[in-house]
Write a structure and sequence with these properties.
This protein has four helices and 13 strands. The protein is an alpha+beta fold.
């Protein structure tokens, strides 16, 4: 850490002889030497100045106090920067550890894609911000065709779970794989889209570069940020 120094006007001390500038004059772009010194050197010069000053022309102590305050301010800023860097690194490491612990677990995350499992079917949740007179879940195939409609009836605000066993509207067993889910909530005389949360298994994690977000890989395809996880099942 370095900072510029200056002597008081008319002083015959070491600072004036060395031609060092004050931090304020350097910031204002005034002419003169652009030399800078470190904190240890400054204090050595200050002690030498006080020891060898002319008794008839003592150096104004206010100048030294100003320079010491400047050093303390710069040191404080640098200390804060180091602390924030350390804190950010610790948070990033903690986030990575939390994400690693999710591998193999099921979570609820916002998504319009869900996987039909031959054993457990397809599970999801509709997240309602307000009560609804009727909640409807539509399940669509790869070509966009509606294969199943699930009526959940009137529901209070909150999370409403649903399950699809893979049977289509015409009674056919649909193959396992990825399906698109859309939900609507009927309220106040109109239907509005509702947030769908899918039950997904975490298969991998990806750490973001330079402190970027941690990404969770979902079994069956797709990925979400760790911050999007609503619930760990």
């Amino acid at each position: 850490m370095t900072i510029s120094t200056s002597s008081t006007s008319g002083a015959n001390g070491l600072f004036a002889q060395l031609g060092l500038r004050s931090a304020s004059s350097s910031a204002n772009g005034s002419s003169g030497s652009n030399s800078t010194i470190g904190q240890d050197t400054f204090f050595k010069l200050m002690v030498t100045e006080l020891t060898n000053q002319d008794p008839t022309k003592p150096v104004d102590s206010k100048n030294f106090l100003t320079q010491i305050a400047q050093f303390s301010q710069v040191a404080g800023i640098q200390s804060l920067q180091k602390s924030f860097t350390t804190l950010a690194g610790a948070m990033s490491n903690n986030q990575a550890l939390q994400a690693a612990g999710l591998v193999g677990h099921h979570v609820l995350v916002p998504s319009n894609q869900a996987t039909l499992d031959s054993t457990n079917g397809l599970n999801g949740t509709v997240d309602l911000q307000s009560p609804a007179q009727q909640v409807t879940v539509g399940i669509y195939g790869a070509s966009g065709q509606l294969v199943r409609k699930i009526e959940l009836g009137p529901q209070a605000a909150g999370k409403v779970g649903f399950n699809w066993n893979g049977i289509s509207m015409d009674g056919q067993q649909m193959p396992p794989g990825s399906y698109t889910i859309r939900a609507t909530a009927q309220g106040n005389g109109q239907a509005q889209a509702a947030t769908v949360l899918v039950n997904a298994a975490i298969s991998s994690i990806t750490l973001g570069r330079n402190g970027g977000p941690v990404t969770l890989g979902l079994q069956g395809g797709g990925s979400v940020d760790l911050s999007q996880v609503r619930e760990i099942i």
